[in-house]
Amino acid sequence: xxxxxxxxxxxxxxxxxxxxxxxxxxxxxxxxxxxxxxxxxxxxxxxxxxxxxxxxxxxxxxxxxxxxxxxxxxxxxxxxxxxxxxxxxxxxxxxxxxxxxxxxxxxxxxxxxxxxxxxxxxxxxxxxxxxxxxxxxxxx
Length: 140
Hints:
Layout: H1 7-21, E1 25-29, E2 34-36, E3 42-60, E4 66-67, E5 76-82, E6 89-99, E7 104-113, E8 126-128
Parallel strand pairs: 2-7, 2-8
Antiparallel strand pairs: 1-3, 3-4, 3-5, 3-6, 6-7
């Protein structure tokens, strides 16, 4: 076998290893695509490896996004962002994070804060509250 013939295979292997090294979002609270009855006071992002947020924003419905501050001051696998008081509506929390290998990763989490009258009519994927706990039995 010619030594030059294995170079493309080695290059592919190295590229795959580097691509897998980037941090990626594993989960969030509230969960992406969820509906919550109680407006969350923060969003928690859990990454596959330590990451540092370099920017974060929130947008309600089709409104322009607003920056979220303060950002966590150090890299971690779990990062929490304080949210402003949220009214019922659809929200997108978006961010840019810097992984340990120096790559910048954008991401977003979408969730809906239900109006009081909609709580009993929540979609099947509703989580009940911002912690992901299901709502308890309702009172008559």
